[in-house]
Amino acid sequence: MSGYPSPRALLDKYELRAKKSWGQNFVGDEHVLDDIARLAAPRAGGRVVELGAGLGHLTVRLLARGAVVTAVERDRDMARVLRGELGDRITLLEADAARLDYAALAAAGPLAVVGNLPYHLTSPILFDLLDQAGQVDRAVFLLQREVAERLAASPGEKDWGVLSVFLQREAEVSVERIVPPGAFFPPPRVHSAVVHVAFRPPAPAAAVLDPARFRALVKAGFAQRRKTLGNALKAGKVAPPEALAAALAATGLDPGRRGETLTVEEWAALERALGPASTAA
Prior knowledge:
By secondary structure, the chain is α/β, with parallel strands linked by helices. 40% of the residues lie in helices and 17% in strands.
């Protein structure tokens, strides 16, 4: 945005350097920032939680679109920049983005969540968000391209995995644009991608009896991709072998298939076929 200093200029102003150990690569490309802000705050007045607000380049664009922004930042140096540049235009929350109470943040209404996520924090943040998906309307993330493609993959594709199943049970996921290394300062070694996640209640065919057991079942099915579904589930010890065999038969699933070929609905049907969680081992 015109008038807001570049990442390099802000780092120089506050005598800081990007922390490689924290995965800090700051987005400076105006078109990428504008696209992310548009997806996260399509209308003025929306409440947005920005994870890892950093130097504030996305934050100012969210504000320009009329969003009410809670900026989450655990790096004290970055928090100092945000206070210095944006002051009381935002609510600054110095906290771990992977351990947020979205219910408290959503007290005044549904939330959008947005952020440029470091690779090593992507899974913890997504699992935390999934545990509280009912509090969030949408999420827009800038991720490593390979992670983004994994989240948006389809059954049977090499990228289809545990997070694909979990997230797509709760949301519609789409890759909006690919972002080259040159859009960041300092530039990373990989391409990134913008992912849009539109949360909605799971479809009836994706309903489960026990969400924790569903996750354990899916994790077991993907734990050893070379194993057949039947053998992988037995190794995972999610339920007694006879219960697993009966559930596979009841759902018509071939135990000789591989876990990565199952759809979200098939995984859910398999979990339901195991019966009430209290009767499962």
